[in-house]
Amino acid sequence: MLRVLTLATLFPNGARPELGVFVARQTRALAAQPEVAVEVVAPLGLPVWPLSLHPRYAPLRKLPLSETVDGLVVHRPRYRIWPGPQGQAGTAARLASALLPLLCAIRRRFQFDVIDAEYFWPDGPAAMRLADALGIPFSVKARGSDIHLWGARPAVRTQLIEAGKAAGGLLAVSGALKADMAALGMPDEKIAVHHTGVDLDRFAPAAGKEQGARLIVVGHLIPRKGQDLALRALATLPEASLTLVGDGPERARLEALAHQLGLAGRVHFLGAQPHAALPGLIAAANVLVLPTVSEGLANVWVEALACGVPVVTSDVGGARDVIDRPEAGRLVPREPEAIAAAVRALLADPPDPDKVREGAARFSWDRNGAELAAHLREIAS
After folding, report:
1. Cβ(270)–Cβ(242) under 8 Å?
2. What is the secondary structure of 200-269 as a DSSP string?
3. Could you give the C-alpha distances from 253 to 73, 152, 231, 240, 257, in angstroms and in order?
4. Is 273 exposed, middle or buried (0-12, 13-18, 19+ CB in 10 A)?
5. Burial level of 71, CB count in 10 A (0-12/13-18/19+)?
6. CA nearest 31: which of 43, 40, 22?
7. What's the CA dihedral at 119, 124, 127, 131 to 10 degrees?
8. How far apart are CA 72 and CA 31, in angstroms?
9. Three-class SS of residue 188?
10. 147-172: buried (b, 16+ CB within 10 Å) or exposed (e) per residue?
């Protein structure tokens, strides 16, 4: 029996049900493997009182310290977070200190063999400290922004590299991210590529869908996702409409830009949507657009292909791992003209949805869970 303690600061909870849904799905796939048992520690970061009373944090304070979700035992310990660069640089150490008593208590009942950290910051360096204290091995998975964003901060980068060198093994969601991790200073020979999964039963082509010019963008409304470029591309596609799924600090600016470009009647801001709503929303579209600056491997790329919807996205991160055939879509520069040209081509000659879907067939959760179990077994042994 392989016993795994999954450490995930990105994990859904009652206050933020869409946070890290892909981590939760992967963890369930791992737990479903033969001779594998899993418990989850999903820490909640809170600032000092009275900042913890802010509406952003107040709902987190009400969450239970432990609960069973979809058959998984999930612990939700609290740890202290501090604003500013110096406070952020100390997050992993504070997280490890807060978690060590809990992990000792869990281990007296559940003798886990390995710590599976599911994001590199702060989970990775915290897992390194905890594994050293407990005398067990650990693994860390990189997902994109943990390397590209946090790795650009010197005080954090040093800790990421240290954890990467100390880990029994590392995972990356794409070949491109593996190369970025190695370039940062992590040992290339320790890094395995571990692609995401997709629920091919839920994400499927819409029956009887008519041809049209319906575009969709799915993602947090932040500058690096490039929704503004999608709007500017739409301005040159008079026959098309655009649905934006997601919320974030850029929403007001994007709504103003849509009005400025005269697109108000053709743009629909849906805000944040539950993950369960995505299959229907994506399947109803004709093209998914994501002119992002950086990604590890965007789950929505794979979800779109599973729905038979081709993708127009930037040639970044693991995009080539997903958009690997003409039917899957186009990789384009982050320019409105290039985005619009790719969309026109796909609308003028739509690929067969079944051919598009073939690109997602290799991204199954069963495969994902089996590969993760094998990776962790090797480290534990």
Report:
1. no
2. TTTS-PPTTPPP--EEEEES-SSGGG-HHHHHHHHTT-TT-EEEEEB-STTHHHHHHHHHHTT-GGGEEE
3. 41, 26, 12, 21, 6
4. middle
5. exposed
6. 40
7. 130
8. 8
9. helix
10. bbebbeeeebbebbbbbbebbbbbbb
Token pair 């369960």: residue: 276
Write out the two tokens for 188. 């290339």
Question: How would you classify the pairing of strands 287-290 and 311-314?
Answer: parallel
Instruction: Give the DSSP H/E element, type plus range, for residue 337.
Output: helix 336-348
User: Which pairing describes strands 78-80 and 114-117: parallel, antiparallel, or unpaired?
Assistant: unpaired
Do β-strands 66-69 and 72-75 pair in parallel, antiparallel, or remain unpaired? antiparallel
Block residue for tokens 């094998």: 374
**Residue pLDDT, tens place only, 211-231:** 889 999 999 999 999 999 999
**How many residues in the chain?**
381
For 288, what's the count of Cα atoms within 13 Å in the CB-facing half-sphere? 31
Whole-angstrom distance between the N-terminal and C-terminal Cα of the chain? 12
* Of the candidates 29, 20, 43, the residue with the CA atom closest to the CA atom of residue 72: 29
pTM of the model: 0.88
Integer Cα distance of 95 and 365 in angstroms: 29
Query: Which SS3 state, helix, strand or coil, does residue 26 take?
Result: helix
Q: Per residue in 192-218, pLDDT tens?
A: 999 999 999 999 999 888 888 999 999
The DSSP bridge pattern shows strands 78-80 and 329-332 to be unpaired
Query: How far is 2 from 112, CA to CA, in rounded Å?
Result: 8
User: For 244-281, what is each residue's pLDDT tens digit?
Assistant: 999 999 999 999 999 999 998 999 999 999 999 999 99
